[in-house]
Amino acid sequence: MAQQLALFLSQLHSIPMNTIEENNINGFPGNGTKESFKDLYLSIKTKLFPHMKSYVIECIQNIFNPVFKNKNFLDYNPTLIHGDLAPYHIIEESNKVIGIIDFGVSGYGDPAHNVSVILDTFGEGFIKKMSKYYDEIESFIDRSRFYANVSSLRWALIGFESNDISWNLNHFFTAKDIGPYGKAFNNL
User: What is the pTM (predicted TM-score) of this model?
Assistant: First the structure.
């Protein structure tokens, strides 16, 4: 399954931008900017930090550190992305991918987004297997780690703002083997 997903992403991400533009494909709605992630952090800090323990706050600060300290952290070459490659959009049978569904949020964006959803649900060990067949993953793994970590924080913020706890429970059992930024990807 890792090989099949890697080949799918490699092919999807290799579609030329001029083809994407010629077909009037819009940007992925989840594309963020440095400023939008700084704003997200400020909202989390203002609304969620008062309800969190200090070690959780420290973890969140570490998640966002690259956005504040590395001016090029969010730089990427846009590609066509699926945008929501969660397990419920991957049809598999006998441990083989037989289809990918729901391209509703697809568009051009950061290829690290696709890997982040898989990372968040299957873990870094699975991504390492994929990287044997799609070697570009290593070049954007830190952004994938960032997006994967930020995902649950977005859900928590939405839940807090809407006073609807179900948002906090939507992705309760995602993978937890996400390495720290800068960790050598080939040492897993």
Answer: 0.90
